[in-house]
Amino acid sequence: MADETGRKSRTQEGAPAGHPVDLERMRASFARLMDIYRDISGTADKVATGRCPYKDSRSRCTAKFECRNQYFVPDKPGELAICTGSDKLDYRKAWVVD
Ligand code: SF4
């Protein structure tokens, strides 16, 4: 049923009138969504331990500090360095820190 502004009326739970909230379906949907987020988070955690967060999608280094894996192409000054690191080794050992 629409009110004078044309909006459809809603139940107290926020569902459109005539469409009551099915709490069990909603809980199941949230549980599925949480499983999906858990999977995404687990994959991101795994990737983050091998792939340096400063490496972009084109294997260029975006770090603002020195790293032994950086290779600056001599003919292209000002360009980002190419990352020569392996995603299978711990990248943090190549970082040059004080
Ligand atoms: S491993 Fe080093 S060179 Fe590669 S992206 Fe990370 S900081 Fe840059």
Task: Describe this structure as you would to a colleague.
This protein is of the alpha+beta class and 98 residues long. It is built from one helix and three strands, in the order H-E-E-E. The chain folds into two domains: 1-50; 52-98, no CATH class. Strands 1-3-2 form a three-stranded antiparallel β-sheet, with no helix packed on it. The termini are far apart.
Ligands bound, unique: iron/sulfur cluster
Euclidean distance between termini CA atoms: 69 Å
Most strands sheet: 3 strands, antiparallel
- H/E series, N to C? HEEE
Radius of gyration: 25 Å
**If you average the pLDDT, what whole number results?**
85
Spatial strand sequence of the major β-sheet: 1-3-2
Number of domains: 2
Spans of 5+ residues with little confidence (pLDDT < 50)? Answer: none
Which structural class do the helices and strands define? alpha+beta
General shape: elongated
Tally of extended strands?
Answer: 3
- Helical stretch count? 1
Strand content: 5-15%
Fraction of helical residues: 25-40%
Short description:
The protein has 98 residues and is α+β, with helices and mostly antiparallel strands.
Secondary structure elements and pairings:
Blueprint: H1 23-50, E1 60-61, E2 70-71, E3 81-83
Antiparallel strand pairs: 1-3, 2-3
The protein binds iron/sulfur cluster.
Q: What descriptive keywords fit this protein?
A:
single chain; 2 domains; 3-stranded antiparallel sheet; 1 helix; 29% helix; elongated; binds iron/sulfur cluster
